[in-house]
Input
Amino acid sequence: MDRRTFLRGTGVALGLPFLESMRAASIPAAQQALPKRLCTVFFPYGASVPSEDHADRDWGWFPVREGDGFRFTKVMESLEPLRSQVSALGGLSHPTGRGIGGHDTGDIFLTGADFSGANFKNTVSFEQLAAAKYGHLTRFASLALSSDGGIGLPTRSKTLSFSHSGQPMPGLDKPQLIFDRLFGVDKGTIDQTRRRLDTEVSLLDRVLDQSKTLRSKLGKQDQEKYDEYLTSVRHIEKQVARSQQWLDIPKPEVDADSLNLEATPDAPLEYIKTMYDLMYLAFQTDSTRYITYMLSAMNGEVSGQFSRALGLDSQHRLAHDAGKPNGFVNQGKWNVCLVEHLARFLQRLAETPEGDGNMLDNTMVLCGTSNSRTHNNRNYPLIFAGGGSMGIKHNQYLQYSDDGEDVPMSNLLFTMLNRMGVSDTGFSDSTGDLSELYV
Amino acid sequence: MSLPRKVVFALYLFAATLASGAREQGVSYVDTVEPLMQKYCVKCHGPDKQKNNLRVDTLNRDFVNGRDGETWHDMLDVLILEDMPPEDEEQPTSDERAAIVDWITAELTHAAEVKRSTGGQGVVRRLTRYEYNNTMSELLGVELDYAKDLPPETSSHDGFLNNGSVMGMSAMQLEYYLKAAQRGLSIALVEGEQPWRFRHWGTENVARRESWILDTPHTRNIQPGNAFMTRLMEFPTEGPVTVRVKAHAVIPEGKGPPRMRVRIGILADTYIPGGQVGKDIDVWESADAPGEYVFKGRLESFPVLTTPSNIPGMLITVQNVYDDGSDAIEIIDLRINEQQRELNTPDPKQPWLVVERVEFAAPDYAMWPPANHREILGLESIGIDEGESQARDSIAHFMRRAFRRPPSDSEIDEVFAFYQSVRPNYATHIQAMRQALSMVLVSPQFLYLMEPTGDAEGARKLTSYEVASRLSYFLWSAMPDERLLKLAESGRLLRKKTLRGEVERMLESPLSERFVERFTEQWLDLGGLDRVAVNPQFYPDFNDRVKPDMRRESVAFFNEVLREDLSALNFVDSDFTMLNERLAKHYGIDGVTGTEMSRVALRPEHRRGGLVTHASMLVGNSTGEDSHPIERAVWILERLLDDPPSPPPASVPDLDPETPGFAELSLKEQLEIHRASEGCVSCHRKIDPWGIPLEHYDATGLYREEVLRLTAEEKGQARTQEEKAPLDARDVMPDGREVDGATQLKTYLLEQKRDAFARAMVVKLTAYALGRSLEFTDEAAIDALTEQFQKRDYRLDFLINSIVTSELFLTR
Output
């Protein structure tokens, strides 16, 4: 059944939950119990996008020729072995992002929020919808990672994840800390841990009560800011309650020997590899199913320099110098490095059996950026991989732009949520879905 | 649109204007913009035709409340890019185009300011990471890194970390606050008998590897880069630690004193000596009267290998970290594999640290229970197992210090009730008390600087306790001490005379070093140094070891101006700077020795003086390969004149790669091409002249007469040929005055921009003091402070006093 047909028509399949009927047709019952995962990776300032007839076209991000007969350029060459599980997408962008500053669009990559008129209130990022629905199935509802760490400033956020109220969720940057969170074992016996958690629940409960009283004494502007605190207490309360539920289930044992948990962004290539390794482990142990990774943020003080590890300029300068002689080659070299790291991660997922297939079949991975050429907020360079068991079709290069008019990015985000069984009505400002991606 | 704090400005794509100026100068819509739009736009975008669905004569001119801001923004872009009017239509003159561009930009900037505005009230702010860390350390009496797991913080658009509106809170953050509280209290509140004090003496320099223990001991004459080590095969892992070192120095003629650093433990992954205990000390004492030096810390802070390894036991490392920056100093990598490189015959031309004895004692409690345990519970003299009957008083006592004011009865009841509810679950009173006090440490009254205003309209006076907190976080980056709380209690703190007295006392305290360091770092964006990697292909002689000194030069310079009652105009130009041997060597200034920063008189041939010639600024605003005149210009405009340019507009196109020979042009020539575009010129002529005069300073902050040039094709590849080109540091200021080189730039600043600098200094210091950005509603107050500041010879101590006694500081 064609999803787009359904959306356009009315009244079809009324009465039956739409997704159930569709899923039953396309997905073997045996696989329905397997985890469905979502992973998004972002980097800033666009990619190498020379014109079609440019001498350095082969250093461009987008593959050559459209349709399934496409050829990867040097940039995505490392994805060739994974071709049947990967697609390249172009011509998507957030309509809300097209009119704002060229470096202001990282925040809304996964939200589609409207920042016009200097209103920087963000909205929920798409993986949080999945986390809200299925997050209780894992020890951690979701995981936000970031090479720069923290939240950053509006338009220069250092995280891709935003809560239901649009609050940025800080990205974790230290490998050791991430590892300890996911796999670290509490000191003490289960009884001691249980007592500690009981105490914490009661403590937080009282803090919350008291804090609510305090709120009424604050001025209006203070209250708005203060609500961040109240929300945080509620969240951590839930989190602790959740730890209580998971108390009797030991954390997965993971061999940390192959991981370099001391890696820091000062050695970017090693660091990025470690972060991907941690993401793989988080998925493999089913510690969480939804991960975002701000591999590098717009104006990321630390991550902006990553490309220097290859002897190239900072990412920002690479993007701005793209039009200069050899500019696309230099930016392309950095893109090659980014894609190679992604490919290694995808390869590991693909090599890990799960159900009748492998982990990549049960994981949708999106990697890309919110500019094409620098300052141009259209035609996002995107790689979309995995999700075979969720009915995703790959091995294609899809260019959605029609005469320069892009399709909303939210249509892709909606398509992914839809395939995960999270939403069948839309996401943010989506106007439909991308049926070309369906088997 | 947006106004991010720090936009990495693209050389060619920069199009911005000093918008606030334009708004004040009042390009009038009715007199100027409207007639121009009638003349050039309305034919196609007016009542008769609305090409591209756009009608401009009915757009809402109110950018704040109207809904046409984005349309104006789009128009701005096409005007700058000269896409409109179309080529075949009549074109406006460059002045006409600039007038519209200026007006729209000014209105957009104004709208952004209004939208960001909190009406001059600021917004409730939490403690910054470093404030939290200092406060926890003082409150618990145990110095640990409490903030290490907290997410990193970001600066506000005006450069400060303590701005409430940009500081977030999240569940994860709160989780780490709770963990830090639990860990801190488990260490600070003790139980049981006093642990046995372990002692160790070492008089011989041992080897790191066990197999080498039997080897001949290494020398005790430690040359720079080398270290003395002693090993404890048995050792405690918790509690206060004291390391006493008996040592003397051998200082050759013309050299500074050796500098001693003590480390405990060893890092598990790299076998590098672990964390530093105490601070570095310069050793001056000679052999006939050796010194005794004491280093104190907590063992919990140090990495100790607990797994079997070829580095058994616990190592105490005493290093000589003197470094004059020369190649003669071999920085010995202390990794285990490098041990062979340790020098048993030290270089007599270098200062030696001669270590006679190292003494170790831990856990080193002067009394039991320790003083901080008693201080937390508010019990002067008490046995270790007593105090349960006074639990409520203890909680109240702790809350007063944690909340920085007396807690209300109901607040105490909440915590006490919690204590009572968990008490049965714990074996001892202290264990339950740790939980209860954890609750206090995640409460908003502790984590935030609360200044509740209720529904009251307008500003209210702060209470004396709120003033005490503002004051101590301003000058100490930490909680008020007991004296401040007492003054708040009696209400005397609100008297201006008392306030001035307290400012004086607080500035005299060593804790005010935090103010000097934090303010200078944020005001001058000293973090820029870390963001720029100097490219060794271009500067083979540059030594990264000098970078921390560059940072310290600026901090010490601010300190000197503050402490010596000098005029703040020294920041613009000065006849001295602060140097140590290593940085002086980099600058090529002779006669400076030692690691400490000291005041050095400057001569004209040094070509230094004022902040704009500090390496911290010059390097931090370079590309690592060459100067970056635009970033330097923006730095001056942002930091010294508080007049930041707007960021580049959206959708600026790439540079046209067809421009013949562009890559081979000098930077200034490239800028000139850029300025030839009418849309860009209005902005660039206001920016570039601030950076061009500093072209004589390269990416390492050194003076140069010519510039190294590379063609673009060579980029990213090994440099094969050096090509030098002459420099041009001349430019024309927006007011038409020509400025050539740094000296003239400084003269121009002093003569033409003195008032603007004074005002900027006031704005920056006040924003830091208040923890919020200043807004147009604060202008009158800022003007008054600026006037006083100038009357009092630009002295910082007077300015700090004026700020602290101003309505801005004392009301909310």
Notes: The CA atoms of residues 11 and 415 of chain A lie 20 Å apart. Chain A touches chain B through 88 residues (CB under 8 Å). Residues 1-32 of chain A have pLDDT under 50 and may be disordered. The first strand of chain A starts at residue 37 and ends at 42.
